[in-house]
Amino acid sequence: MGLKLKVDSKEIPLNEFVEKILSGTIVGAVTSLKGVKNDWKKIEIEISQ
To answer: Is 25 within 8 Å of 45 (Cβ atoms)?
Structure first.
């Protein structure tokens, strides 16, 4: 599983531990939502302030 973090278009490097924690949390939350299939290919999240 791959994860990229970009802040203001700058990619932020993640170590393996942080990548696993973030991706596991996001995948777990998203796949538990009604209407999301188990065979998903890509999840995109955009946060703005």
So the answer is: no
